[in-house]
Amino acid sequence: MQVFIEPNKQDWEALLMRPNFDAAELLPKVQSILDAVALDGDAALLRLSETFDQVHLKSIVIDPALIQAAEGLVAPALKTAIQSAKVNIEIFHQAQLKKEEKIETMPGVWCWRKSVGIEKVGIYIPGGTAPLFSTVLMLGIPAKLAGCKEVVLCTPPRKDGTVDPAILYAAQLIGIQQIYTIGGAQAIAAMAYGTATVPKVFKIFGPGNQYVTAAKQLIQQQGVAIDMPAGPSEVCVYADETAVPAFVAADLLSQAEHGADSQVLLIASSSNFVEQVQLELVNQLTNLPRADFATKALGHSKAIVIASREDAIQLINAYAPEHLILSVDNALVVAEKIINAGSVFIGNYSPESVGDYASGTNHTLPTNGYAKAYSGVSVDSFVKKITFQQLTETGLKNIAQTVIQMAFGEQLEAHAQAVAIRVKDIESKM
């Protein structure tokens, strides 16, 4: 990790830059994949699986019998863990379902709002170096709670053409049956455009590599909604003398092991603490199966020493991390001052891993600084909000002059007439 001690505020913007990839070269490649799927449908999907996954598939549809059989292929301890996580995630997301109230804004004028589940949604589940069955729960559970009528799941095949049984088990557990063996940008294209086999959806969710991210950005420009802009996963740890160096190192590595393009950021109150963490990183890396990924990620990650708590909080909000761990004294007080973050983990015993898997909060979060404007996935991500209004005759009379005067002020006289003609009718009956 690169270490920076009390950097000047004018240097913060450059210091907090994320690792970037060259989209100029990638986007045309991804667009060609999208075009191929739009033109040739299922045939293109099979062809692209051979090209990118080196797998010859006879069908992209996963037989429901295989989905049911997956339960027997998952270790009992893992099944129990998935079931426990499911319960916590459901409890947290169920609480987000709120009944909307009718509001009388003035006598006789009633307004209300209703949440309606998006009819067709697609979720993408990475299945390469790390099969993310946890993301099945994080996306599928709020989709089901929101009332989405159709949930389509795409995940890449393994080298033998199969899908990780834990992904299938998690899908079966929450009631997802439409599962397709498709990976990468072609999966996004299939859900965006539809094929003879894969239904077209209205909104697409899920993480992925640079190709997946670019595909989501491109189909969004074509009118298909996506969950949020996304980049490589990231964590920021803010630690003072009350933190445990071994804990902090483990937290940094838990994010760094995602991939070489991940970024971890340590903000510490002293140089001595940074040195302790660096020693722990070396020790813990030796036992990490994905040490290569983590080492590469640490190579472009940073540790920043800032003694002032006020300045540290300001730096965190400027960075807007996907995950923020507060390993500091009076962490709850600090948490109240955080305005830009995807998810916050408070205290020495709140590792980011619990949010990734099982505490109940959603792990699909804004990255790359988008936490300044975007929220993580929730039930609200899977619904539309429709507003309603109903006026009585008295209500229309009460609001009539307000609307008429504003319509004339904007020189939109037909708007005024739509009210005036009704008021005239009401008065004629009196």
Can you describe this structure?
- With 430 residues, the chain is an alpha/beta fold.
- It has 3 domains: 23-107 and 115-227, 3-Layer(aba) Sandwich (Rossmann fold); 231-375, Nitrogenase molybdenum iron protein domain (Rossmann fold, 3-Layer(aba) Sandwich), CATH 3.40.50; 392-428, no CATH class.
- 45% of the residues lie in helices and 17% in strands.
- It has a 6-stranded parallel beta sheet with strand order 1-11-10-9-12-13. The protein has a 5-stranded parallel beta sheet with strand order 6-5-4-7-8, with helices on both faces. The protein has a 3-stranded antiparallel beta sheet with strand order 2-3-14.
- α3 (42-53) runs antiparallel to α8 (184-193), α5 packs across α7 (165-173) and α8 packs parallel to α9 (210-221).
- It is globular, with a radius of gyration of 26 Å.
- The protein starts with a strand and ends with a helix.
List keywords for this structure.
alpha/beta, five-stranded parallel β-sheet, globular, 3 domains, 430 residues, 14 strands, six-stranded parallel β-sheet, Rossmann fold
